[in-house]
Amino acid sequence: MAPMDPHSFTDSMHPLTKHVHLSLYFDFNSKTIDGSVILTLESPYSGDLYLDTRCLKIHGVYHDASKFFSPSNYIPFLLENPDPIKGSLLRVSLTNQSSFAIIFKTHQSASAIQWLNPAQTAGKKFPYVYTQCQSIHARSIFPCQDTPRARIRYSAVLNIPEQMSSVMSAAHNGRMAPSIGEAKGACPDEKWVMHGRIVEHFSMQQPIPPYLFAFAVGNIVSKEVGPRTRIYSEPCHVLEAAENEFRNTEEMIKQGEKLFGEYEWERFDLLVLPPSFPYGGMENPRLVFLTPTVIAGDLSGGQVVAHELAHSWTGNLSTNATNNDFWLNEGFTTYAERRIVEVVQGEERAALNIGLGCAELKDEMQRFKDNMEFTKLRTNQDGVDPDDVYSSVPYEKGFQFLWRIERQVGRPVFDEFLKKYIRSFKFQSIDTETFLAFLKKNLPGIENEIDLDVWVDGTGIPPDVMEPISTIHDKILSASRDFIAGRILSDEEVSKWQGHEWQLYLESLPKKLTPSQISALDGRFQFSMSKNWDVKVAFLTIVAYSGYKPLFQEIDRCLKEIGRMKYLRQLYPGLLQSDLEEGKSFARRVFEEARDFYHPIAQGVVESLLTKFA
Asked: Which of 50, 211, 395, 567 is catalytic?
């Protein structure tokens, strides 16, 4: 066995999957999916082929998708005992085959899938289900080679209740009555075509890594907001608010094309999910997933859209080979995002973004002070769950590395380098070594000007990291120092401040303040009631660490209203390390009450935090 990825059973000696076809029957009562998948390999293969699974029930493996129950159609398989991180290895014994079918059923606890009851949705009438496959969770939906190295095209038919609709990270090819034969063994034909069901058809023609596979099913409506963009959400106020917040999307796409080349994915649609969605955004191609918490009302949420858009070139077109090289996705994308923001929203907005990133990077150094391996760009994650070490290091240290190269060679030269990099590795998955070789070849002598080893394999923050050059950034940092000295901001000084200014101000304060300082801040600026979630959580994080009990109920409300892991990773550690004796018991109680609201990935993250700070 020669694994190619520390988080996958995929063997480097085996052919990779080039296409999958999925038939999925959604059962909202049992919160499971009955499925069949036809996998097509790059070349015929004889021997045991290794696939990744997690908590899947495998009913059978077959030669021919149209003859499931013929004894001669059966392919031997073995599902091994689960590894705590990678899940269960599925061995399929092939004989000179390039295609085969698997019938399976997902588990209620599938790590990629969150099922919401009607009461957990905006309309309170229909249930909802959605996925989050990054980094290694596609295997909990269907058996696959769940590594970014295995880029797949896919087609899918989704059988759902007729009063609901579905979306995918793929082209929508129609909505029609179910027909005999479509199930391909996922369930009996009479169940597939029963009254009250509808089938939606999708296809993804470009090869993508499995972590970009995505769907959502619910009471979903949409509104066209540009020639390439439609916003989807539940039928509620969110749709109109999102239309306003993301109204500059087409301009961002055009700027991205000027900077990085043609947009390769035809559509750039946005789905605003229920508030339990665990990330700010997910760059699923053709259909970005977003948390409603990015809708701030001041267009600042557009920066999250800019980040996910930038992934259309860096991450989705050229992709990290494994999670050890995650910075190739996120460092490049953070750099690209800030270049787009600089043009669309101005240099000061981009500079504030950099300032916030610098503060986050410093916080991560403290978080990983006992395990500095994860402050490197190129990490060793063998035996490590990527969800446990997810951080802003690949984003912000990766950005700083690329910004350092830009300053060394000049922006015009770096822009040409970046375009060539994207063209050269389009629809490929590469590792850090490949990037470094490309860098040295195309920017000769760069290794003599910048210590690449320190940046890529060194721990901590390199000495040539740079803070943004920005008047407003410097004023905010000065204002935070003034507050500690006893001076609070005047109305005139903050009359033009928006969410990012307040966020940087709060995150530049010490994590622990006195009761009188917290009371003064909230009394003056009403941070605990802010409609901007980044600002509100930045303030409540100080409340949590400081053990300021009068506002603990507001933390309770926050943790039960949102499932975004960025916020959970701020508030739960604050409570668990609080000056207040009962902080830990408060955190545990809130989690027990909020647990079912969180996506499975977020549940696991909070459980790890509770264990770490027990």
From this structure: 395
As separate numbers, helices (DSSP H) first and strands (DSSP E) second, the chain gives 19, 19
- The catalytic position among 308, 330, 406, 507 is 308
Degrees to nearest 5, angle at CA 465 with 464 and 466: 110
What pLDDT does 68 receive?
67
Return all residues near 404 (Cβ < 8 A) that are at least 6 apart. Answer: 450, 455, 462, 464, 465, 466
Residue 593 is a catalytic residue: no
Q: Which residues face 13 on adjacent strands? A: none
Q: Active-site residue 264, yes or no? A: no
| Phi, psi of 290, rounded to the nearest 5 degrees | -135, 145
Q: pTM score, two decimals?
A: 0.96
Give ∠ CA 232-236-237 in degrees, rounded to 5: 100
| CA dist., res. 474 & res. 462, Å (int) | 21
* Weakly modelled stretches of the chain, pLDDT under 70: 1, 68-69
Residues 140 and 87 sit within 8 Å (Cβ to Cβ): yes
Q: CB of 112 within 8 A of CB of 140?
A: yes
* CA 118 and chain centroid, separation: 25
Q: What is the radius of gyration, based on Cα positions, of the chain?
A: 24
User: Which residues, 6 or more positions from 338, have their beta carbon under 8 angstroms from its beta carbon?
Assistant: 350, 353, 354, 399
pLDDT digits (tens, 9 = 90+) for 116-155: 999 999 989 999 999 999 999 999 999 999 999 999 999 9
- 309 touches 290 (CB < 8 A): no
